[in-house]
Amino acid sequence: MFSFFKKKPVAPEAPEVQIPAPAPVRQPISSPIASPIASPVSSSVSSPVSNSVSSPAASDSYVQQALMPIEEPAQKQSWMTRLKAGLSKTSNNLSLLFVGAKIDDDLYDELEGALLMSDAGVDATEYLLDALKQKVKDDKLLDAAAVKTALKQLMVELLTPLQRPFELGRHQPMVMMIAGVNGAGKTTTIGKLAKHMQSNGQSVLLAAGDTFRAAAREQLMVWGQRNNITVISQASGDPAAVSFDAVQSGKARGLDVVMIDTAGRLPTQLHLMEELKKVQRVIGKGMDGAPHETLLVIDGNTGQNALAQVKAFDDALKLTGLVITKLDGTAKGGVLAAIARVRPVPVYFIGIGEKIEDLQPFVATEFVDALLP
Prior knowledge:
Elements: E1 3-6, E2 16-19, E3 33-34, E4 44-47, E5 51-54, E6 65-68, H1 73-86, H2 88-95, H3 105-117, H4 122-139, H5 144-159, E7 166-168, E8 174-180, H6 186-199, E9 204-208, H7 214-227, E10 230-233, H8 239-253, E11 257-261, H9 270-286, E12 293-299, H10 304-317, E13 321-325, H11 335-342, E14 347-351, E15 359-361, H12 364-371
Parallel strand pairs: 8-11, 8-12, 9-10, 9-11, 12-13, 13-14
Antiparallel strand pairs: 1-6, 2-5, 3-4, 4-10, 6-7, 14-15
Helix pairs in contact: 1-12, 3-4, 4-5, 4-11, 5-12, 6-7, 8-9, 10-11
């Protein structure tokens, strides 16, 4: 689980406001009801029957919080076990090279091939090899174990700039726009993040901005019903309008976080990329400075194609962070090195499975320990 570090509130909290439910109110708490909101377009709001949210006045006492890695020993050990298992295909290709190896050109050649096979990319591979050779020379390293340790240190140094805590509390609500290609796991990632935030005291609103794929809208609705989270959706129409509605609703209700799903698209689909830019502009009209976070969800199995996605979406949207999913069982875990070297957009979270706890903040040392145990 995630943990939040909280500062002492600077002002007394405002009382919670109960949003009354339409009669009758004999439905179970997880059952959604539709209720209209004041907005430029007609969107449906899937909202829990009993939904307590803070009033807008609570913003005076809102405090900044940081989404930090797990610290409990048992949970940490469990996470590291799953992470090492998920990256085992990548780590095996690298770690086996150092078993009884001699420090010679053959080792460097094999290491170069293993890094390229892990989709570290040419730039990162050349950088790591050049730095490793220099370190071996300067430190007079004579055995394979010492060279492996040196490589781990270099990889941590390369990946550490990608590590950045995910901070809440800079705005109320904090508006997050989530993008990605089809099949990357956007909607599932949104549901997991929303659940984690909610369990740590954050009030969350979800917006089903993917108005083209009905399954995405329904999938987000399921997350809302399951976790008692309001979902704003529209069967068809303009995703920008749905996003605008969500921002306005989040502001009016004094919520902490508004997360906006978007339709999956390839970066080569230029007309769809332009539509994504429009969604981002309209969100900004709903709230100055929004979206405060623009995240790209990437399938870790796509390898070097992931780097191409980062470049294209970053050029279009000015990304603030990445979420790397489906790293479990991949042989392409080295793609983070390619991202760090070519387009170092922060990696907020990595996912190595389907469960809620399988999505955790990215920590460079943990990732490298799993790659080179």
